[in-house]
Each structure stands twice: as structure tokens, then as C-alpha cells.
Amino acid sequence: MNPAMWISKTGVQAQDAKLQAIANNLANVNTVGFKRDRVLFEDLFYQVEQTPGAQRSDGTTSPTGTLLGNGTRILGTQKVFTTGNLQTTSQALDLAIVGNGFLQVEMPDGSTGYTRSGQLQLNADGRLVTAQGLAIVPEITVPAGATEITISESGLVSATVSGSTTPQELGQLQTAGFVNPAGLRATGENLFTETAASGTPTVGNPGSDGLGKLRQGSLEASNVQVVEEMVELIAAQRSYEMNTKVLSAADNMLQTLAQAAR
């Protein structure tokens, strides 16, 4: 079997994976707080015909050697945590994080999840929750009949309660930061969970310890750039086509060899 066929097969598989990542990015171009994925590749092991620096039969030294590659494979995928554009909504419970950090939420199993999506709402108990109904951590409860809810850049939540003209403090929002946010596990529904690669979270008030500030009445848009993704799509398509042409060329060479042997 011609080794070029196996090598081009790895190239086709690699570009197919890249195409899947691009499709996911484009599908989430309007998802609040979404972070685009990029695919990382590495070359496979090399077939060493002659080691660089090896002694030749004529007494000279090989300056480069002879190393034949065996294709490529996916090294991993990486979330790109650049900040998306801010969209003004003028909704009191919409929050955007300007800078680093994540809002903390209570997962159904009791663990803590992390999100950049600030589309917050109130549940039946007046507790601040995400659009999926997950409670914000620390717990913030808004009394019935409260008006003019305000959230400061540092996360202080206050509201005007019935019978009072002075705003009442309801609680303090905190955000979490990670040494390696790209190491977080994306679980869908705009959520991330901690892993060994991400490190443990640093929790603090927004605007402190390198954490971003909050902006009320705004949402962070997806950081997917459609033009950039389309360029990546074209490049992946062309690379896919070239690898399939190598498959076809290797097949033609084998066919020619088979006919010559008859």
C-alpha cells in the first residue's frame, strides 16, 4: 500500500474535525457569552531512514538525514477567551463581564459551574438565576415588589423596596477567575466546569484581583468573527480537496503499477 494514501487519510480526517469546529462556531455566532473553538494539530511520528549527523559510507556526515513524515492528527481543541462585543439591552438583570472572570452558578448536582452569559432572571422565590434556571452563587434574593434593581461594577446588588425611598443592599455578586480558562470543560448551555488543567478558581468581587468589572444592562456577544470563520472554512475546504487529490494520485500510481506488472 502506498504510504501517501494513509498520510492523506490523516489530512482528510484532520480537516473534517476542523470543519466541525468551524460549523459549531458559526452556529453559535448569536449565542450570548459563547467563546469560539480552535483546533490544534500536530505531525505524527517520522520514519527515520537516516539520522541527521549519521556517518555515511563515504566518510562524510549527513547534514539533514532522511526523515519521512506520516501525517497529522488532532492535538486538542482550545476555547479562545477574548472578550466579545458588548450589546446594550437596558434590561436591569442583564450583566456583562468586562474583562476576565465568570459568574458562578449552582449546578443540579450541587457543584459549582461557571458562565459568561449574564442573561439573569428571577425565579418564583425571587432568587437571581440564569436563563436556564440555575441559581447564582452567592445567593441573591430580591424581595417581592422591589423596584429599581441596580448592580454596581463591583457586584453590589441593591433595590428600592416598597415603603422605602432608600435603596436596600440585597447582596454581593462575586466572580471567579482561572489561571488557565482554556482548560475549563465546556458542558453546553453556556456553562463551564473546573478541571485539573484549569486550576482552582480565584473568587472575588468584580474589579479586584484581576477580575473584570460588571456592566448592568448589557450582554457580552459571542466572540466569533464570521469573516474570520469563513476564511478558515475556505482554507479547510481547499486543504481537504488537496488531500483527496493525493489519495487519487496515489491510487492512480498503484493502478499504473498493477497494469505494468500484468
UniProtKB/TrEMBL annotation:
GO CC entries: bacterial-type flagellum basal body, distal rod
SUPFAM superfamilies recorded: Flagellar hook protein flgE
Supply the alphabetized keyword list. Bacterial flagellum, Cell projection, Cilium, Flagellum
Q: Where is the Flagellar basal body rod protein N-terminal domain?
A: 10-35
Q: List residues of the Flagellar hook protein FlgE/F/G-like D1 domain.
A: 96-159
Q: Where in the cell is it found?
A: Bacterial flagellum basal body
Q: Where is the Flagellar basal-body/hook protein C-terminal domain?
A: 215-259
Q: Which InterPro entries does the entry mention?
A: Flag_bb_rod_N, Flagellar_basal_body_rod_CS, Flagellar_FlgE/F/G, Flg_bb/hook_C_dom, FlgE/F/G-like, FlgG_G_neg, LlgE_F_G-like_D1
Q: Which GO terms describe its biological process?
A: bacterial-type flagellum-dependent swarming motility
Against PANTHER family, the record matches this protein to:
FLAGELLAR BASAL-BODY ROD PROTEIN FLGG, FLAGELLAR PROTEIN
UniProt similarity note: Belongs to the flagella basal body rod proteins family.
Q: How does it assemble?
A: The basal body constitutes a major portion of the flagellar organelle and consists of four rings (L,P,S, and M) mounted on a central rod. The rod consists of about 26 subunits of FlgG in the distal portion, and FlgB, FlgC and FlgF are thought to build up the proximal portion of the rod with about 6 subunits each.
Q: What is this protein called?
A: Flagellar basal-body rod protein FlgG
